[in-house]
Amino acid sequence: MTSLLAAQTNAGHGASSPARVLRCRNCGAEYPLIAVHACAECFGPLEVGYDADALAAVTRAQIESGPNNIWRYAPLLPVGQNPDDRVSLNPGLTPLVRADRLAEAIGLNAPLWVKDDSANPTHSFKDRVVSLALTAAKGLGYNSVACASTGNLANSVAAHAARVGWQATVFIPSDLEPSKILASAVYNPRLVAVDGSYDDVNRLTSELQEDDAFESTAFVNQNVRPYYAEGSKTLGYEVAEQLGWRLPAQVVVPIASGSLLTKVDKAFGELVKAGIVDERAYRVFGAQSLGCSPVYTAFAEGQDVVRPVKPTGIAKSLNIGNPADGPYVLDAVRRTGGAIAAVDDDEIRAGIRLLAETTGIFGETAGGVTIAVLKKLVAEGAIDRDAETVVFNTGEGLKTADAVESQVGPTHRIEPSLRSAREAGLLG
Amino acid sequence: MTSLLAAQTNAGHGASSPARVLRCRNCGAEYPLIAVHACAECFGPLEVGYDADALAAVTRAQIESGPNNIWRYAPLLPVGQNPDDRVSLNPGLTPLVRADRLAEAIGLNAPLWVKDDSANPTHSFKDRVVSLALTAAKGLGYNSVACASTGNLANSVAAHAARVGWQATVFIPSDLEPSKILASAVYNPRLVAVDGSYDDVNRLTSELQEDDAFESTAFVNQNVRPYYAEGSKTLGYEVAEQLGWRLPAQVVVPIASGSLLTKVDKAFGELVKAGIVDERAYRVFGAQSLGCSPVYTAFAEGQDVVRPVKPTGIAKSLNIGNPADGPYVLDAVRRTGGAIAAVDDDEIRAGIRLLAETTGIFGETAGGVTIAVLKKLVAEGAIDRDAETVVFNTGEGLKTADAVESQVGPTHRIEPSLRSAREAGLLG
User: Fold this and answer.
1) ipTM score here?
2) Partner residue facing A186 (CB), from B90, B160, B404
């Protein structure tokens, strides 16, 4: 254990944090709230464990009196109870958009909502998890930050670091979309393009974090991952609050590492346990790209084990071939009676356009995946046409412009004259 | 007067709207609240006139009890008092970001804030004005919408129309940034690329709106412009509310048509008159690109008349060579003791990067203009280093990626191995 880790053991967290331990999701072994993410006993992933009484005591009024961002849920999060401790762009409370035209287009008869996380500061849901990770990192004594990323996480880490003046080192596959590279580079981090897949990048950063050169660096999705991952719970909390403190019957969530899906499910469960929402049956559906669908394959084949794949396809932000939370996704989907589907690149492009044309929301390829999967699951009868549904758009179309730019463009080209407008048919 | 206009005269607006007339800003002639924007007497621009008693009766509590978007200010707006009447993506309440690192970088000793309107649904301040325009248009009996745009307005009009299922016809200069073209095209409007400048496009749409083919079409920045323009007031209201209901000492606002700057000033004045904020001296500063700086030129030369120019340069969203509100900008800046400055393309690029590196906000070229002008005015002593300042970022960097993409990028490129990382110097 390095000296920084030793100091963390005694650092503790504010008395008002409900977090008590890190607990192995495989074997249940417990650890103090330090910067570790894998169990020393069984190598299983660690998760934040809370004081059940503290969570149960949280009330709607307490949340509603908080700020208009994720920190209103601080009583349900491991860190950030004290505003001065937060390292955050203050994301969250993104729009929950009623999508009647989309519902009609795909044959849903009940209310359909799009939770639009492209409204976050760097235009993806990653701002939520990075805010948690960096706030935890500050409390644990770190003063620089790193990550392995398929793009959105890199954007968010670089932007957060710029706001507070930390050094950021961001590792990305070198074949990412140009807009995602630019939207990290503009913040001037150390931006390391790695000639390999995301899974290669992730393995590399796992090794780098053990090097002395990175001793004071928090790797947001590795050594502080347990805190980081809890940020995704806020998407679940917000959906419930924005529906008027109730759970929807069905949710459709994209799967990359799988963490987002499992945390939305966890958030719903916590709200029920705290008595903040009424218990109800809900079903969780997962969305993958056929270019990278290991969890879909395991689901379809009835397996419990997720076999890694080599990703291809345009939905790069979902291209994690060895998803850390794959087995937990299978658990949540099967337990709630949901399903997982996967769609190809043409369906993804059509999903982006369908979402845009019916809601005014320009989602990234991951959003196209999720909308296309929603459409497919409705057509197949897996999603109940008569039950309220929430679908997640987790990122911004401008970041994956290349996916659709060859498909859409000006419908008319004219000279600046009435005559030219008439010749183009614009005057009827 | 067409039959639609005749009907509008009798349509009226809800009893709870404080708007009473359209009034000529030149000669004071009054008109009913219909779809006209130029005075029949003198061709001057029309502006919404309010019932002074109704505005004066508005309270902080009334606003604070409203929704977390521009409609919380409905008691101060001409339309949208009834939620069911709104045609809106519900923009607004965008972050007011404390920018200590930017302040330090440019030598400001007092609090500096960035009002970040890239957080709006289509990532520019135009969502505010389009929401007002389309809400007015619906009340006036229109069911389709058009605009002339330098890009952001087109994006917002197309997205709003997509959400409600209206036909949109969007006219843009054909040489716009590819991302701005895409971010309209994806919503599937009639997207008309015009081989000419914005001013050419604007003249063309002025003529088109008189054609029978467009009789039931609202042109957001032409025949419903008086309502449209009022949407920009919400930026001023929000700044005051987010500062804890007080006015800042200095604001720096980009100038395209000039409407935004004059409406922020108008909003501050209304809040003082209503007793919602205390009266105080404040100074309004304007920012232009040297590629299109007619208002700056008039200011620098002490002229009252703004001579049109042919725009050049990368700040395309500000490239309006014949700014409709130019003279009113000069009035507001001179009356408050402010100033106007202009910056070249290199300064604009540096402004984008400075904003990003110190705040985590990736602004578009217009944001780069405003930051660069802020820096210049501080260096020249025109802006008081010891007085609180608010600067407006009105759009999103991803939409003008080409401005900086040749300047930034990966700092390292490696193989996925420790050895390669070491050779690249990442391990110290």
Assistant:
1) 0.95
2) B404
